[in-house]
């Protein structure tokens, strides 16, 4: 992982260089400063710090500024997007005494980084997040720790506030979860619910934050040059029919003949998913389990694509929806099988 560290005078540049040496095993740390303070292995801020922050936000997941927090807040403000996308931003006081998470304390990991770095650089971490200070597990941190996606950030914010206020919250999950205390039925006195599910149709009569596991695999076959718009439109209909969240899709699978198919590649990009492709020979090992088409075999060398590729990519998981066809597109939907030790 690449980190950036920004220092604006000779003393803080020297400190940043020492800090990089102490933390070399944690990250590849790039140090930036003004041209007049540049030394060997330190890079130059181009065009002024305020404008250069755009470069930093684009290229780094962690940014540590060694300067007054007021400067940081004013200068990064134009580049803030959302807590799910912003990098972890930390303020290290110019004398190196205090390390303060400024942005993305949970999802970006700024709080965790501050705690971890403090012992190495002899700086005191200053954590201001209420849930951390009160030893409560915030909804966004629960999601991050268990590789879940937040369905709605306002709901998550509300449930975190309720937890901080000691309201009774039940956590219900449609899938097995380790390290989380789950309830199977709502307890008397419960004020809110955290629901771990990839489904969209179940509703509760209480404030609810939905956390979504990315355990859905889409097996897909499509005729050459099918557009992203056509594929996405059909997928959207399939998901709606089966009450599945789009955010639950972690993988798209197909045959390797489709590895460069523009419409599928764009779908994978928009879903932020993994793209798994298999050779005809690999699919042939399991294709007898599924209905086959002579036409598909003539084109691809194997009698089916969507079902066997989804089956393999889901670790031989559960089929939620068998192949559905529309305008040369075939889609199947699978729930990934997790090994017992996972």
Q: How does this model look, in words?
A:
The protein has 342 residues and is an alpha/beta fold. The chain folds into three domains: 2-128, Rossmann fold (3-Layer(aba) Sandwich); 139-213, Udp-n-acetylmuramoylalanyl-d-glutamate--2,6- Diaminopimelate Ligase, Chain: A, domain 1 (3-Layer(aba) Sandwich); 216-335, CobE/GbiG C-terminal domain (Nucleotidyltransferase, domain 5, 2-Layer Sandwich), CATH 3.30.420. The chain is 32% helix and 25% strand. The protein has helices at 10-22, 49-59, 69-76, 110-121, 130-133, 139-145, 153-164, 228-241, 262-271, 280-284, 294-300, 306-313, and strands spanning 2-7, 28-33, 43-44, 62-66, 88-92, 98-103, 124-125, 148-150, 169-173, 192-196, 208-213, 216-222, 249-255, 274-278, 318-326, 329-335. The strands form three sheets. It has a seven-stranded mixed sheet, with helices on both faces. The protein has a five-stranded mixed sheet with strand order 14-13-12-16-15, with helices on both faces. Strands 8-11-10-9 form a four-stranded mixed sheet. α8 packs across α9 (262-271).
